[in-house]
Write a structure and sequence with these properties.
- The complex is a heterodimer.
- By secondary structure, chain A is an alpha/beta fold.
- Chain A contains seven helices and 13 strands.
- Chain A has a nine-stranded mixed β-sheet, with helices on both faces.
- In chain A, helix 2 crosses helix 6 and helix 4 packs across helix 5.
- Chain A is globular and about 70 Å long.
- The mean pLDDT of chain A is 92.
- Chain B is of the alpha+beta class.
- In chain B, the strands form four sheets. Chain B has a four-stranded mixed β-sheet. In chain B, strands 4-5-9-8 form a four-stranded antiparallel β-sheet, with helices on one face. In chain B, strands 1-2 form a two-stranded antiparallel ribbon.
- In chain B, helix 1 packs parallel to helix 4 and helix 9 packs antiparallel against helix 10.
- The chains are: A alpha/beta, B alpha+beta.
- Chains A and B meet through helix 2 and helix 6 of A and helix 1 of B.
């Protein structure tokens, strides 16, 4: 007897951010991060992409849409690699490079919330944080704006047979927590969820033909008013050599008076 | 007018000026990125072990196929990536920065084996062999013998016509790259020695053919995980439908394939030089002696600058030869010069890299000594340096004398 599988029409939306490539040593010049260097997909977003693609390969997800916010070069830096990995199409929220740099996490979340009106994703996959600002804000803020389910720091995900909920395992300080979430849901992906694949060459070539829907950020009607003021950007201090202490008292003294850590 | 993009000004879709030699198009950049990441993550951790074992991991070979690196120029219809020749060149260079052995495996597959089918095989043969070569079958190009290396056309392997379209091949090939793992062999044999080199014919022989046996694997100085074996043909039965191109035209196939293969080897040598350079120069700026990083000493600075200059020069020669080939321009002299120079630079830079790293450059725990050993083959295979010099000289003589 054949088991009837419900035909999937689940849609996964994956947020992919352009960040300075993780191999590059970030430098600060004149109070600004030097940005004229190689950019590539945020490594946690690669994990998010892989999670969506694995679900598509299992026939659970029908369509994957990759979304990025950034300048023209974001298309080559992140959207094409996303489509080469397995996204069916992309949405490119277009703005200038310096506009993208100034975007705060709340604004990014609002942009995604606005896109949800059109995309109506069932699962929003994001990396748990971006390696440039390490904020880990957007997935949580997006959940609040959409009023939907949230699963952060995913280390495992399974979709229910009727595709109305997901069961996730998330990494917390004292172990793993398993949650069942009603869809739609926003999830953020952590390191141990999967190992992202390398896009194959034929797929890299096919990605060129996949559609990219470009929207101008300015035309989206999202409140971009800033709520944060950046006071200073500086290079972290050069790491100095360590030292030996004679006893606990000396240690406490150093921590208190020299390093001012306590 | 659209904004300036990488030195090109565009009006509508036409390029105003010629882009720099080092300019890569979107596809080539995406390929380069993928291969560099793949090599760093998957190949780098296994390089030393494969070299010690003198064996390429089956996993690595499988992954190269999976990534589409074995059918770079093959059309999408046959499961390839449909990129141009330059795509192969970029992949070969990026792989060589990490492991020249994996690089030569991919080079032979793309520039010699696949190429033979693109250029000379009929539609049926292409449909039969290109898909398997792109997905899971490694190929070998069997030309050299114990008695014929540079003098390739003095080959003795004989293909006797038995009538009814049947041939029987007898002979033994030597120095055959990929042969340890290949499923398909392109065998150059002479159907009529009385015609001299005009009897040489290219046959496709499957590994399953009972008349073909892969013999002794050479214990080599360098590129040790690339299998280099004897290929023995004993009463090996083939059919005229296994002939690539035409009977008696094998010599042409060999010459033209090797001209292109030359550019591929040039690219391998550039990658090797860059790989050795990157590892050693990074070390030179970390290693402190007499209170300073050794890379800051003027003697070192000058050597480093010269090496970087030579690598760039070799790269430009290889890229230019590749672009000319892709544009169907005459590139024979460019290919010979590129291979000659790139292999010289690789030998020199790899040797310096060992010295820059000092004691650490001399031990197998660090990559420098392997690059040094691997570089030597560059001056030998696919046309020795002396042969390249002779070829170049002959072409110059034809222009000047």
């Amino acid at each position: 007897m054949m088991r009837r599988t419900i035909a999937s029409n689940m849609r996964a939306v994956v947020g992919v951010k352009q960040c300075i490539d993780y191999n590059i040593k970030v430098k600060v010049k004149d109070g600004k991060v030097v940005k004229d260097v190689k950019h590539s997909m945020n490594p946690f977003d690669e994990i998010a992409m892989e999670a969506a693609v694995q679900l598509k390969e299992k026939g659970i997800v029908k369509e994957i849409i990759a979304v990025t916010i950034g300048p023209k070069k974001a298309e080559a830096d992140v959207l094409r690699p996303a489509m080469a990995t397995g996204a069916d199409k992309s949405v490119h929220v277009l703005c200038e490079a310096d506009e993208a740099d100034k975007l705060e996490t709340l604004q990014v979340a609002k942009i995604f919330a606005k896109l949800h009106e059109e995309l109506k994703g069932d699962i929003y996959f994001m990396g748990k944080q971006a390696i440039d600002d390490d904020q880990s804000h957007v997935p949580q803020m997006l959940t609040a704006l959409l009023g939907c389910s949230q699963g952060t720091f995913l280390s495992d995900i399974t979709v229910s047979d009727d595709k109305t909920s997901i069961e996730i395992s998330r990494e917390v300080d004292d172990g793993h927590e398993t949650l069942k979430l009603k869809l739609p849901a926003v999830v953020s992906c952590d390191l141990r969820l999967n190992t992202p694949r390398f896009p194959t060459l034929p797929n890299i070539m096919k990605a060129k033909k996949k559609p990219v829907d470009t929207k101008k950020l300015a035309d989206m009607g999202v409140d971009l008013a800033s709520r944060i003021q950046v006071l200073e950007v500086s290079q972290p201090e050069e790491r100095k050599g360590g030292g030996r202490v004679a006893d606990v008292d000396e240690l406490i003294n150093k921590l208190k008076n020299e390093v001012k850590a306590i | 007018m659209q904004p300036l993009v990488r030195g090109l000004t565009r009006v509508g879709k036409r390029c105003f000026s010629c882009p720099a030699l080092t300019s890569l198009n979107e596809d080539e950049l995406a390929l380069k990125e993928m291969v560099a990441n793949f090599a760093r993550a998957e190949i780098a951790p296994r390089v030393m072990a494969m070299d010690e074992a003198q064996k390429m991991d089956d996993e690595i070979i499988r992954k190269c196929f999976e990534q589409g690196l074995m059918g770079i120029e093959t059309s999408a219809e046959y499961g390839g990536a449909d990129l141009g020749f330059f795509g192969s060149i970029i992949a070969i260079e990026e792989l060589a920065k990490v492991d020249p052995s994996v690089s030569v495996m991919v080079d032979v597959q793309n520039t010699l084996v696949n190429n033979a089918f693109f250029r000379y095989a009929n539609k049926d043969m292409q449909a039969k062999y290109l898909p398997m070569l792109a997905t899971d079958t490694l190929g070998s190009f069997c030309l050299s013998e114990a008695g014929s290396g540079s003098d390739a056309f003095a080959l003795k392997t004989r293909a006797e016509s038995m009538g009814g379209g049947k041939y029987v091949i007898n002979g033994s090939k030597m120095w055959i790259t990929n042969s340890g793992e290949a499923g398909l062999f392109l065998v150059m044999a002479n159907v009529d020695p009385s015609k001299g080199y005009k009897g040489i014919t290219c046959f496709v022989v499957s590994k399953d053919n009972p008349g073909l046996k892969v013999g002794k694997k050479e214990n080599k100085l360098g590129i040790r995980s690339s299998s280099t074996c004897e290929v023995l043909l004993q009463d090996c039965e083939v059919h005229e439908t296994d002939v690539v191109g035409e009977v008696g035209k094998g010599y042409k196939i060999a010459i033209e394939l090797l001209n292109e293969g030359r550019v591929g080897i040039g690219s391998q040598m550039v990658g090797l030089a860059q790989g050795a350079f990157d590892v050693a120069v990074k070390y030179a700026y970390e290693r402190k002696q007499f209170g300073v990083a050794i890379g800051t000493n003027q003697g070192m600075q000058h050597q480093i600058a010269q090496a970087a200059t030579n690598i760039q020069a070799a790269r430009l020669m290889v890229y230019n030869a590749a672009r000319k080939k892709a544009n169907n321009e005459d590139f024979i002299q460019d290919a010979a010069m590129a291979k000659l120079f790139a292999s010289q630079v690789a030998g020199d830079v790899a040797s310096k890299a060992v010295e820059w790293m000092g004691g650490v450059g001399f031990v197998k725990d660090y990559p420098a000594e392997k690059f040094y050993r691997d570089a030597k083959i560059g001056a030998i295979y696919e046309g020795t340096s002396n042969i390249q010099l002779t070829t170049i000289a002959k072409m110059i003589q034809a222009q000047y004398a």
